[in-house]
Specification:
Helices cover 1% and strands 55% of the residues. By secondary structure, the protein is an all-beta fold. The strands form eight sheets. It has a four-stranded antiparallel beta sheet, with no helix packed on it. The protein has a four-stranded antiparallel beta sheet with strand order 4-5-8-9, with no helix packed on it. Strands 10-11-12-13 form a four-stranded antiparallel beta sheet, with no helix packed on it. This is YncE family protein.
Length: 350
């Protein structure tokens, strides 16, 4: 099974961020061979591949640390040529800062980057022209910490998740305006259905300072795009951080599992779980154990292989999404690169 799922992927590449490296590492998607590692600015978080320009975008969010515990926010985006594996440009979007989530509208040549609040403005989304690699404008989301951002297939509606704010920000991308707030108890990752009818949002916010009994019901809130209301919840046992929708309509969610530890108020990390739902029927299709603290999930372009980056174990787990059997594991920590985070699957040049 491993050979059949992997066949035909020669030349495809997986890019992996090491948040504390700080690096982006490239692997052969057919063999898992380590190809090259390049250094980037601290502290890299997410990746987004633009197939039209054949460039890889990387957000650098903080000078050190992480959300709620950092030494200051960065304001740079790094643009990488994934074929030559060299940095093309570092773009400073100051006074915007804390760039994190990335969403691409390849048809219109627009890249959307979520940024944290400034003293004079709330958090928002910066719009970048992918041809010139320069900012075109900004859309306010009326929340301090928009983290992940996703757009519908038409490129007209965007959704920003907000960690502490009790709502999802819905924005009109053509008018550049906030149009709705969907009530949820804080939120993490998200994805939008292939027909644009629904958004799938991980909630509540991943705070470990509360007990499971105190925490709101964990799962994936399903938002109806037409009414901007939550119409269903796909339940999970644990808090979810990353959410990803494959080309075959499978919804991949990364559950963060904690074990009780008397020495620690927050507990300690247990192996995480990749749980899979059908985006159409909302049926739970199964689950598979992965590493500690799944932070980012992506898939191959055909939707048959899933990749889960786990920050605490600094591993990337490769999963056959037809059988939910593990295919392999990339030990980023063994390369001396702690904190696996952002992922991008890069098809070979045509």
């Amino acid at each position: 099974m491993q050979q059949s799922v992997r066949s035909g992927r020669e030349g495809d590449v997986l890019a992996v961020v090491s948040q504390s490296g700080p690096t982006v590492t490239f692997f052969d998607a057919a063999t898992d061979q380590h190809l090259e590692t390049i250094e980037v600015l601290a502290e890299p978080h997410e990746l987004c591949f633009d197939p039209a320009q054949r460039l890889l975008w990387c957000t650098t969010t903080y000078r050190s640390g992480y959300y709620h515990s950092n030494s200051g926010r960065r304001s740079e985006l790094t643009v990488i040529d994934p074929d030559s594996r060299r940095i093309v440009e570092v773009i400073d979007i100051a006074p915007e800062h804390g760039p994190h989530g990335l969403a691409l509208d390849a048809a219109r040549g627009r890249l959307y980057v979520s940024v944290e609040a400034r003293e004079d403005r709330p958090g928002g989304v910066v719009v970048i022209d992918t041809a010139t690699r320069r900012p075109l404008g900004r859309i306010d989301t009326d929340a301090p910490g928009p983290h992940w951002f996703a757009i519908d297939p038409t490129g007209t509606t965007g959704y920003a998740t907000n960690k502490e704010a009790p709502f999802i920000s819905v924005v009109d991308l053509e008018r550049g305006a906030l149009t709705a707030k969907v009530e949820v108890p804080g939120s993490e990752g998200l994805a939008v259905s292939a027909d644009g009818a629904h958004a799938f949002v991980a909630a509540p916010y991943g705070s470990f300072s509360t007990t499971r009994a105190q925490r709101p019901f964990t799962g994936i809130r399903v938002i109806d795009a037409g009414t901007a209301r939550v119409v269903d919840t796909l339940p999970t046992e644990n808090v979810v951080f990353p959410v990803h929708l494959t080309a075959t309509g499978k919804l991949l969610v990364g559950e963060v599992r904690m074990e009780h530890d008397q020495a620690s108020r927050l507990g300690r990390h247990a192996p995480g779980r990749l749980t899979v739902f059908s985006a159409d029927s909302h049926e739970r299709l199964g689950a598979v154990e992965v590493g500690h603290f799944p932070l980012t999930v992506t898939s191959s372009t055909d939707g048959r292989i899933g990749y889960v980056a786990c920050g605490v174990s600094s591993t990337v787990h490769i999963i056959d999404l037809d059988t939910l059997h593990p295919l392999g594991r990339l030990d980023i920590a063994k390369l001396g690169e702690p904190g696996a985070h952002g992922l991008a699957y890069i098809p070979r040049p045509s």
